[in-house]
Design goal:
- The protein is of the alpha+beta class.
- The chain folds into four domains: 31-134, no CATH class; 144-246; 256-372, no CATH class; 385-481, Fusion Protein Consisting Of Minor Coat Protein, Glycine Rich Linker, Tola, And A His Tag, Chain: A, Domain 2, CATH 3.30.1150.
- Helix content is 26%, strand content 27%.
- It contains twelve helices and 22 strands.
- Strands 3, 4, 5, 6, 7, 10 and 11 form a seven-stranded antiparallel beta sheet that branches.
- A hairpin with a 5-residue loop joins strand 8 (183-192) and strand 9 (198-200).
- Helix 5 (152-170) crosses helix 6 (211-220).
- The longest helix has 19 residues, at 152-170.
- The protein starts with 5 loop residues before the first strand and ends with a strand.
Length: 482
């Protein structure tokens, strides 16, 4: 009988930036109190059974919530640090959006900052709402090239982009021509020190022969004058990005927008654009909170078997604008949309708004784009896009149940209880699993996970805009050793 349990969650994985390299003491600096207004509000709005499902990250003593501020002064990109607790996270985010931030008695909220607070801690073995009484404020490091930006995520993304550009311009990628892998991802992680210098971290994952080159290129970046602060104290935030390398090719920075503008004929004069122009006003455009970095609001949807639109969403930073765009789109006749192609299990996308020459304008697709996630064998008859994702997860789970050595965890001297394993990998354009990276509680488990992943069956590759693309995934799973 198998003496372990694997609990899987699978989601697309895109490398961006993490926050800081050291732990922040919310107990000391944010005055958490289980009887303050936010704690009592959550107790009223969130069911106890959901609170019990909230899981803490490894070695963490609390669960925190973070967010940014848009042009309306409203929170967006609300993130909860609870592991594998989807329903709890959704309930907290929904409730938090209705809570007035004025009750924190903080200074005026700034779009350039990131805000965070503790929401849950332990009392004995029980989860309790023990929310911060004041917001913790974090400012990003700002390099000279990014000083024009006014949204925190854009400022940090801008720095990533500038460092990446430096690699494309100056790095000697021919050093990698003798590597064994035909294709690999160069994962580059760096911190911005308190003196404003960029420093490569040990988490950087590149071939050994490219390590010195990576360190050298990062050191070329000019010193940053405006460093990062958290709670008014200097910190050293972490950034990361990935460069895809194919043997014999020099990586290039590709602007997909130029390609998509041509492929989907984006403009302000087509019928759909005019439909939106008639219904969106200047105020709507101003609250889009776009910039030259985050320069689009896109809309996604699916079609059922009767070609009816469902599961509509947008990338808007404003809930109000999100709802209005969806309402307008749902009022537009589906038969007037021009599709490049219609296939089962596709998700369709189009641009609605564009940041152009310093202002936000309506600019939509003349032809609708589409994307399709990789399909695990046997998932071809999934009902819809979301069902195909769940089927993929089940396929991977069953593969592990069949192939993973069930006795291994108990033969390694591991203590009883939950053991977490994180896997990152890529499904390439041929449907093969490549670039497998694993974090595990023991080297033998890591080896076993890599072996099992390498035995995965060939997968139908994902597509975007009708073309096969590489898709990155991460799998966090919990192994319960009995």
């Amino acid at each position: 009988m198998k003496n372990y349990l694997l609990i899987f969650t699978i989601f697309s994985f895109f490398v961006g930036f993490s926050q800081t390299s050291s732990e922040f003491d919310y107990e000391k600096f944010s005055n958490p109190n289980p009887e303050n207004e936010l704690s009592l509000y959550f107790k009223k709005e969130i069911k106890k059974k959901l609170l019990r499902t909230a899981r803490f990250q490894t070695k963490k003593k609390n669960i925190t919530l973070s967010f940014f501020i848009n042009n309306e002064g409203k929170p967006y990109h609300i993130n909860i640090t609870s592991f594998g607790s989807g329903d709890f996270n959704k309930a907290v985010i929904s409730a938090f959006k209705e809570f007035s931030l004025d009750k924190f008695n903080s200074d005026s909220l700034d779009t350039r900052n990131r805000y965070s607070l503790q929401i849950v801690s332990k009392k004995g073995s029980k989860n309790i709402f023990n929310c911060s009484s004041k917001l913790v404020v974090e400012t990003p490091p700002v390099c000279e090239q990014c000083e024009d930006l006014k949204f925190y995520p854009d400022i940090k993304s801008c720095l990533n982009l500038e460092v990446r550009k430096l690699f494309y311009e100056k790095a000697d990628f021919s050093i990698l021509d003798n590597t064994k892998e035909e294709e690999t991802d160069l994962y580059i992680k760096f911190s911005v020190t308190k003196s404003g210098e960029l420093k490569m971290t040990k988490k950087t994952k590149v071939p050994l022969e490219f390590l010195l080159e990576t360190d050298k290129i990062i050191s070329y970046f000019p010193k940053i004058k405006t460093i990062s602060y958290k709670n008014a104290k200097p910190i050293e935030p972490l950034h990361s990005f990935t460069i895809n390398y194919k043997k014999g090719e020099t990586p290039k920075l590709i602007n997909k927008e130029v390609k998509y503008d041509s492929l989907f004929k984006r403009n302000s004069t087509n019928e759909l654009a005019q439909f939106f122009i008639d219904k969106l006003n200047t105020i709507d455009l101003n609250i889009a909170s776009l910039s030259r970095i985050k320069n689009q609001v896109n809309l996604y949807f699916e079609l059922d078997k009767k070609n009816k639109v469902f599961n509509v969403s947008t990338t808007s930073r404003s809930d109000f604008l999100d709802k209005k765009i969806i309402e307008i789109f749902n009022a537009y006749p589906t038969d007037k949309l021009n599709f490049k192609s219609k296939e089962p299990l596709k998700r369709y996308f189009l641009q609605i708004l564009k940041y152009k020459e310093g202002k936000v304008v309506v600019e939509t697709n003349s032809f609708i784009g589409s994307e399709k996630i990789p399909l695990f064998p046997g998932c071809e008859n999934s009902v819809n896009y979301e069902d195909a994702k769940k089927c993929f997860s089940r396929g991977v789970q069953m593969h592990f149940v069949k192939k993973f050595d069930a006795d291994l965890p108990n033969n390694l001297g591991l203590s009883k209880g939950r053991k977490r394993v994180f896997i990152a990998f890529k499904i390439n354009t041929k449907g093969k699993i490549i670039n497998i990276q694993v974090k595990a509680p023991h080297p033998r488990i890591k080896e076993e996970v890599i072996k099992v992943m390498q035995q995965m069956p060939l997968i139908e590759p994902g597509t975007q805009g009708g073309e096969p693309v590489n898709i990155k995934y991460s799998i966090p799973f919990t192994m319960i050793v009995k």
